[in-house]
Design a protein that fits this description.
Number of helices: 10
Shape: globular
Order of helices and strands: HHEEHHHEHHEEHHH
Radius of gyration: 23 Å
Structural class: mainly alpha
CATH class of one domain: Mainly Alpha
Distance between the termini: 74 Å
CATH topology of one domain: Multidrug-efflux Transporter Regulator, Chain: A, Domain 2
Number of strands: 5
């Protein structure tokens, strides 16, 4: 017996409501080619199906991870054609499970406690330049995962310019590595259900982080050894 796919049945208002966005957002994505056109039904009313909803949810997830519209267009352009709603849900599960924890809003006292010490105005300025802290009125938006590293860098005898340049180098190469690892993961689990993918991805994340850290430490050790030998 052949299982037929669900017919497009949602109006643009219903699609927007299901995805938690505005109708204007749906139409904007459509004009940019991020959403396929609807199926035109009786009285020339556009109808949207599960694939439209799944793609819209994937776009929103990518935006939550800080991707620009241009980056989202590139990401979607690399997806194989003809993906169904389950395939798109798998991609969304992979993106969501590898996302970093969102920044926290902390008071000055909470910031000092998390940092392990009081911070001067100059310390906060440098942490802000590193993208670790963002002052907001009487609070601070803090990337808790980077705070301890940022605080340790405050005591390193390097100029802020050098620290920021090093940060850009690490970001560039870590993004490239993350992109390739994500592609490999998507290909490896293409036949699994979305919930299985999320569970597997979350399990693999600490293993991948440890592998990246170990290989980076070894590479850096070799570079430093060679630098000292040449000096």
């Amino acid at each position: 017996m052949t299982i037929e796919s669900e017919e497009p049945a949602l109006t643009v208002d219903e699609l927007a409501a299901r995805a938690g966005v505005t109708v204007r957002t749906v139409r904007f994505y459509s004009t940019r080619g991020l959403l396929p056109p609807p199926v035109i039904g009786p009285r020339r009313v556009g109808r949207y199906g599960p694939e439209h909803l799944a793609r819209l949810e994937l776009i929103e997830e990518l935006q939550r991870q800080g991707m620009t519209l241009a980056a989202i267009e590139r990401y979607l352009g690399q997806l194989p054609p003809g993906l169904d709603a389950q395939d798109l849900a798998i991609h969304r599960a992979v993106v969501a499970s590898w996302a970093p924890d969102p920044p926290e809003a902390l008071s000055q006292e909470e910031l000092y406690r998390l940092a392990g010490r009081e911070l001067t105005d100059e310390d906060v300025r440098r942490l802000t330049a590193m993208g670790v802290v963002a002052p907001e009125d009487d609070a601070y938006r803090v990337d808790a995962g980077l705070l301890r590293l940022g605080v340790e860098l405050l005591d390193v005898p390097l100029s802020p310019e050098v620290v920021l340049a090093a940060r850009e180098v690490l970001l560039e190469h870590s993004r490239a590595a993350a992109h390739e690892l994500s592609r490999l993961l998507r290909e490896a689990v293409a036949e699994r259900a979305a919930q299985d993918v999320k569970s597997l991805s979350a399990h693999m994340r600490p293993l991948v982080v440890q592998a990246l850290l170990t290989t980076f430490q070894r590479s850096l050790r070799e570079e430093l050894r060679q630098w000292l030998t040449e000096s």
